[in-house]
Write a structure and sequence with these properties.
Distance between the termini: 55 Å
CATH class of the largest domain: Alpha Beta
Structural class: alpha+beta
Shape: globular
Strand content: 5-15%
Oligomer: single chain
Length: about 270
């Protein structure tokens, strides 16, 4: 059950954003209000302009959250593997989602999970995903660090019930928020993700590679491709040999390094440049 204190706090936050005419500072207060409503530890707002580079417009990081990874590396290409972003992009989905709602089977064994969750002590994450009229996506992310608690279902339901109001507020704010981005960035990196490994691997190996990068389990890949688990393991072994890596961890860092080395506008395998 939600306390009257929390309801009053949330009402005050929304009223304050409106009274400040949806200013950028008031959006930071809204982020803090979402954190408080969900009893979160830290939060972040990320705008994904259509075909543009993601922008972290607001963040409230803790001391153990490295901006080089959680912002810079994420914006430069790691976001392509973010299950929340992929779910919103691939399904045109919007709403309030927990990590378990969107993460692929086996995700918690992936290097992405290790880097962006485990090493920072993240226990769970909730994202409010908004689909905007210009085809951009906005994410309001709240993280829990405590291993002893999970997000309260009543609190999540309350946020879900005010989703339309939250979306309206962000729509009003974005009308005044000026964005400057390279319109070819998103298409450039999406193509790079699709081409990754193509100069060295067979089409079947490339397909398996992309499932592995996104954190899918061997069992899931086998079912998806109608192969045996042993067949997928054999292909994965060959992929690692051809790419000269020995683990999913090394594969993840190879992917990140290849994105950084890829010349703008290139249609080739990013691995060709490292």
């Amino acid at each position: 059950m939600i306390s009257l204190k929390k309801i009053n706090l949330w009402s005050d936050v929304l009223a304050n954003v409106i009274s400040k005419k949806f200013s950028t500072d008031s959006i930071n207060e809204l982020l803090q209000g979402v954190e408080s409503m969900l009893d979160g530890s830290s939060g972040m707002i990320t705008l994904y302009p259509y075909l543009g580079k993601p922008q972290t417009t607001h963040h409230r990081l803790l001391a153990n959250e490295d901006p080089n990874w959680h912002i810079s590396t994420y914006e430069d290409g790691a976001y392509l593997l973010d299950p929340f972003y992929r779910y919103a992009l691939d399904n045109q989905a919007e709403g309030v989602f927990k990590l378990d709602d969107v993460a692929p089977e086996g995700f918690k064994e992936s290097e992405y999970y290790s880097v962006f969750y485990e090493k920072s002590g993240f226990e769970d994450e909730v994202c409010i995903m908004l689909q905007l009229s210009d085809k951009s996506i906005l994410s309001i992310s709240v993280v829990k660090h405590s291993i002893h608690q999970s997000f309260n279902q009543d609190h999540l339901a309350f946020i879900e019930n005010t989703f339309s109001l939250v979306k309206s507020i962000f729509t009003q704010w974005l009308q005044a928020y000026e964005t400057a981005f390279d319109g070819s960035f998103e298409g450039h990196l999406e193509h790079a993700l699709g081409a990754f490994g193509s100069s060295l691997l067979t089409p079947k190996e490339c397909e398996i590679l992309h499932y592995v990068l996104h954190g899918y389990s061997v069992k899931y890949i086998a079912e998806k491709l109608e192969n045996s688990v042993e067949t997928i393991k054999h292909h994965r072994k060959n992929i690692y040999l051809k790419l000269d890596v020995t683990s999913q961890s090394e594969l993840f860092y190879l992917f990140i390094a290849s994105l950084k080395a890829l010349p703008k506008g290139s249609k080739e395998d990013p691995l060709s440049f490292i």
